[in-house]
Amino acid sequence: MNFSYYLVSSFMASATYLLIKSTDHTPTRVSSTLSLIGFGGLYLIHQFTPIDFHSLASLIFGASFVGMCSHKKINIGEILFGSLVFAALFDFLDPVSYQVGGALGFSAFVSIVLVWSSSKVVSHLKTLILSR
Question: What is the DSSP string of 44-56?
Fold first, then answer.
């Protein structure tokens, strides 16, 4: 279990989400800009210390997908939880499976759908319990 995956994923997803929410830039522009900045920082770190550059670069890119959700449907708490689910998927699935095109985006989508649907179920159960 690589805890740096969870930190990087949470940071990238929340930075992407908050930047989209606070500016008038499109989600794809924000995601690609933050990914490029993340890749650059990762490359500099890689020059001075041995890290798994390719896995972390994929994680940065995928986590920025998690943050591309609409702030009208998903809140920051759900983004953070979704980024942790994404990091868990990334950590436990074989990194070779992420060589297939679309796997990062699909994992980000699955993470957000799981979090969003869980949130709706909990909200519905709460209203059912309180109405009795």
Answer: HHHHHS---HHHH
